[in-house]
UniProtKB/TrEMBL annotation:
Residues the record marks as active site: S180, H206, D302
The protein's name: Protein-glutamate methylesterase/protein-glutamine glutaminase
CDD domains noted in UniProt: CheB_Rec (cd16432), REC_CheB-like (cd17541)
Reactions catalysed: [protein]-L-glutamate 5-O-methyl ester + H2O = L-glutamyl-[protein] + methanol + H(+); L-glutaminyl-[protein] + H2O = L-glutamyl-[protein] + NH4(+)
Key words of the record: Chemotaxis, Cytoplasm, Hydrolase, Phosphoprotein
Compartment(s) where it occurs, according to its Swiss-Prot or TrEMBL record: Cytoplasm
Length: 370
């Protein structure tokens, strides 16, 4: 098989050198060129026809966002953004994901060489995923370092309990959403279409701490619901969305007749913290039939086991279909494990969720009258 051809676009010679060294160490990846700014990159793209680009956010002559927007309109190519772990870096990176970037690599501010080396495996993995990601023209669809860690299961946070608590009758329902690669845009599609009357939503998206705060603020500006980073021991309210902070697992627990959020800084699960499996298991054990699970685009299999546990506990479960997923890893694995009731294109999931919540309320009301 031919190697994945990568073009590195970055004004830092050190970053270009480090990325070249890391990527060329993989037998299936070849760095075919490097460019110090978008103008040089434009000519090299024409000549080298790379499969994947890495693109710095801030560069001379033309910033990364402007270049990305032109690229995704005229010649869509999978792009991995190289972003500084700063508030400004986070804001710009989220815009880049909206423009069609597949993923991002966090660029540390100090000791760049050692930091990059410490998570070279993840950088290589992201390039491999990007090479097979679905990228579309721009207007069609609209921790300090990320280290390689052991792939623990959700057992390290919550023991597996196949017999969850008996569900109690309540008008409160909870929607739990899990996503990874491509998830910030998929979540935006969902939240911008959900009415303010929607039951409480809890979200686990693989994202570093600085980015999760910016992401929550951005979603709050776009959604009719109130969106914020989850805090520990807060009551989950209808019309509110709780996004797991980077570096923390988000769990849902029962407190009398209410549901509350809990944050946990235990080991990463499936190499992630927050982990979708942890959130979904807590929902299976504490919410059960009062819940709806949604698993969206993402690399790997985090969430596949957890949503199966939700399904077995009586929850209704939904997975994003392959054609609309940037990467069909997590939802595809969830379907293989038999934990999914509905497989839908992204644009149809909001209406399904609204319908499921409406039917639940009507059925509960009828039961109460009896």
């Amino acid at each position: 098989m031919s190697k994945i051809k990568v073009l590195i676009i970055d004004d830092s010679a050190l970053i270009r050198q480090m990325l070249t060294k890391i990527l060329n160490s993989a037998p299936d990846i070849e760095v075919v060129g490097a460019a110090a700014d978008p103008y040089i990159a434009r000519e090299k793209i024409k000549r080298l026809s790379p499969d994947v680009l890495t693109l710095d956010v801030e560069m001379p002559r033309m910033d990364g966002l402007a270049f990305l927007s032109n690229l995704m309109r005229l010649r869509p190519i999978p792009v991995i953004m190289i972003s500084a772990l700063t508030q400004r870096g986070a804001d710009i990176t989220l815009q880049a994901l909206e423009y069609g970037a597949v993923d991002f690599i966090s660029k540390p501010q100090i000791d760049i060489a050692q930091s990059f080396e410490s998570y070279s495996e993840e950088i290589i993995s992201k390039i491999r995923v990007a090479a097979h990601a679905k990228v579309r023209p721009l207007n069609v669809l609209s921790n300090k370092t990320l280290k390689v860690v052991p792939k623990y299961s959700a057992d390290v946070i919550l023991s597996h309990n196949p017999s969850p608590l008996r569900p109690f009758k309540t008008t409160e329902k909870i929607i739990a959403i899990g996503a990874s690669t491509g998830g910030t845009e998929a979540i935006k599609v969902l939240l911008t279409q959900m009415p303010a009357s929607t039951p409480g939503i809890v979200i686990s998206q693989h994202i570093p701490a600085t980015f999760s705060s910016s992401f929550a603020m951005r979603m709050n500006q776009l959604s009719a619901m109130t969106v914020a980073e989850a805090e520990d021991n807060k009551v989950i309210l209808p019309g509110h969305v709780y996004i797991a902070p980077g570096g923390y697992h988000l769990l849902v627990e029962r407190d009398g007749s209410r549901y509350i959020t809990r944050l946990h800084q235990g080991n990463p699960v499936n190499r992630h913290r927050p982990s979708v499996d942890v959130l979904f298991r807590s929902i299976a054990q504490n919410v059960g039939t009062n819940s709806i699970g949604v698993i969206l685009t993402g690399m790997g299999d985090d969430g596949a086991r957890g949503i199966k546990e939700m399904h077995d506990a009586g929850a209704v479960t939904v997975a994003q279909d392959e054609p609309t997923s940037v990467v069909w890893g997590m939802p595809g694995e969830a379907i293989k494990q038999g934990g999914i009731d509905y497989v839908l294109p992204l644009h149809k999931i909001p209406d399904k969720l609204i319908s499921l919540c409406s039917n639940y309320t009507k059925n509960l009301s009828n039961d109460t009258k009896i």
